[in-house]
Structure formats: C-alpha cells, structure tokens
Design a protein that fits this description.
Elements lengths: L4 E2 L30 E7 L4 E6 L6 H4 L4 E7 L4 H11 L3 H8 L6 E4 L4 E11 L4 E11 L3 E6 L7 H9 L9 H36 L3 H33 L10 H64 L14 H22 L4
Helix pairs in contact: 2-3, 5-6, 5-7, 6-7, 7-8
C-alpha cells in the first residue's frame, strides 16, 4: 500500500502559504506529481452503480439524486480540481483551502447544507517499521459523501465490498451512516497501529530489563515520537465525533446517534491505549537510567573497596620507603618478609570487616 506520508514529516510546513489571501488554493504536501482519480459509488437498497468520473461536471446528476452517492478523490494535489468541485457543488473557498492543507488538525465544521470533517488516517508499514499518516477530508451532504485522500490506496476497499454485496445495513442507511462507516474503518486501523506499537514496546521492554544499551534508548525515543503523531491524530477526533453527536444539523439523524456513540467509545479506548503506552515508555526510560545508575554505583563500589584496601598498603610501603639514615628496620634480616606478612594481614582483616559489614 504505497500511499501515505511517513511520520518523519515536519509538523508545520507553510510551503508558499505565507502572505496569500484567505481561500487561496495551495497544496502543502509533497510536490510529487500525482494523477488524481475520481471514482463514484451510487447506491440505494436495490441497486449499485460504480464508475470512474472523467470530469468533475459528471457529479452534477448525482447532486440532487434520491440515492446515496459516494465520490472518492485519490491524490488530491491539484488546486484546479478543487476549484472545479467548488464550482460544481457550491463549496466554500475556505473549506477547499483546508482540503489542500494537509497539516490540518482533525475538526468538524457545519456549513448548513453540508458538513466538513477532517481526520488523519494511520497505517503501519511493516517493511519500514514505522507509522504512515495521511489526511482525509470528508464532505457530507444530504445525499452524497465526498472523500479526498492524499494518496491512492485500498484503505476503504472492505467498505466498498460491503456496499457492493449489500452486507449489513449500509445500503438501507443514509449519508450520515456512510460517514460513520468511513470513520469507523479509520478508527479500526488505529487499533492495528497500537497493536504493532505494543509489540515493539514489549521487545524493547525485554531488552531494557536484560541488557539495555544506547541503541535501546534510541528505539524508545523513536516510539515516543510515533506516539506523539498517534496522539495528535486521535485526541482531536474525540471532539469531532462529539460534535457529530451533538450537531443540530438535519444531515445527522437521531436514529444513527448510537453508532457515533459507539465510535466515540472506540476512540476513547484508543486514547487510553496511547496514554498507557506513553506511561510504559516513560517507565522504560526510568528503568534504563536506573539500571545505568546501578551499574555505575556497582563499579564505584568495587573501585572504592580496592582503594580502601590499598590505602593502608600504600601507607606501609610509604613508611618503609623513607630513606632516613637511622631507620631501625633497614638492617633487619627479615624486614621484607615481615612487611609482606603485615600487608597480607591488613588485607585479610579488611576483607573480613567488609564481609561482616555486608559490603561484599
């Protein structure tokens, strides 16, 4: 699934936005040339029509249709494409600007006859062993839902398959339920990402306990950076779903409120998981530094014991090394042997004292 921007991206990227008038359409993502693709899925309880739209004007027949129309735009990087959508569908210029600004915070805005939602899609790249992030913009109207993705991919293929096969209740529900289903898939992927991060944390935890190194600390900090991106994506989504629950818009029907409450519960589980992992990572860092401190203390303890043992020996050799003319022991036949025995005695006495004090 080659589709998303890795978590190494910068948090703030103005990229040509400075000084422009509000509503100016400038794409703030990577300037990789991508060909946009617009697909349409039109359905009701009895039929499904699926095709690729060549022009934005092809959306006009579905604007006021009695069916539910899901229009998905992949690789939304071209301002001209958004201008056409604004012209055909009557969208606000500031909302179109937000779609191209991929550093948007997840949010909910009610424009009266349509609702605008921004969320972050997270996925885990097993090959690179890192989280990938992509912005998704949703526009929910009376009979249409338009989704804008940064990259092409198969994120929502399971949902499309449910619509094609009329699995569950989705073909009988309206656009608000379709928006819920899209958000639900995004939140389900949050759980997958947390599971992968949990596996990495477990591996690092074993290393921290057994034999921590500087590479282990770098691994912990790398996961902490990933957790920042997860938290930045998940926490504002709680406010978005809460706003959808409490919205007085006619687009959000009371009959579907239970699904959004369930979605809110799932998001709370994700946020609890994020907080738990952050506490674990902080605990791992504390354990690492505690282990390093203990190792240093043990080394200092050994060095201190050696110093304590050799200090009296140094004192003895210092006395016998003095070159005074009248030194009684200089003429003693067993002076050298006696000094060695004295030093060994001092070592043994100090050794037993250390054992008695339980310093060894």
């Amino acid at each position: 699934m080659a589709r998303k921007t890795a978590t190494r991206k910068k948090i703030i990227r103005p990229r040509g936005k400075v000084g422009l008038a509000p509503g100016s359409l400038v794409y703030t993502g990577d300037k990789t040339p991508l060909v946009p693709r617009v697909t349409m899925l039109d359905y009701d309880e009895h039929r499904v029509v699926e095709k690729e739209l060549v022009r934005v004007d092809d959306c006009i027949p579905f604007k006021d249709a009695q069916t539910v129309t899901w229009i998905n735009v992949d690789s939304v990087t071209q301002p001209g494409l958004l201008e056409n959508f604004g012209r055909v569908m009557g969208f606000h210029a500031l909302m179109l600007e937000d779609i191209l600004n991929i550093d948007q915070r997840p949010k909910f805005e009610d424009y009266g006859n349509y609702i605008y939602i921004v969320v972050k899609m997270l996925d885990y790249d097993a090959k690179k062993s890192e989280i990938e992030i992509e912005q998704l913009s949703l526009i929910v109207g009376p009979n249409y839902v338009i989704s804008f993705q940064e990259r092409a991919g198969d994120f929502f293929d399971p949902l499309r398959e449910r619509i094609r096969k009329s699995l569950g209740r989705i073909r009988k529900m309206g656009t608000d339920y379709l928006a819920y289903a899209i958000l639900d898939i995004i939140v389900d992927h949050y759980f997958v990402v947390l599971e992968r991060l949990g596996e990495k944390i477990e591996q690092l935890e074993e290393i921290v306990i057994a034999n921590p190194t500087e590479a282990t600390v770098r691994g912990v900090y790398a996961i902490k950076r990933e957790m920042i991106f997860v938290r930045k994506s998940v926490w504002p989504l709680r406010e978005v779903v809460t706003s959808l629950q409490r919205s007085e818009s006619a687009l959000m029907r009371e009959s579907n409120a239970a699904y959004f409450r369930d979605l809110h519960d799932h998001i709370m589980q994700v946020t609890d998981g994020v907080d738990t992992f952050r506490d674990l990572l902080n605990g791992m860092l504390d354990s690492y530094y505690s282990t390093i401190t203990t190792r240093t203390s043990n080394v200092m303890k050994v060095l201190t014991l050696f110093s304590a043992i050799f200090m009296p020996l140094t004192f003895i050799t210092g006395i016998f090394g003095m070159n005074f003319r009248n030194f009684p022991e200089l003429d003693w036949h067993y002076g050298f042997q006696g000094s060695i025995i004295l030093m060994l005695t001092v070592i043994l006495v100090m050794f037993f004292i250390f054992k008695w004090k339980k310093w060894l």
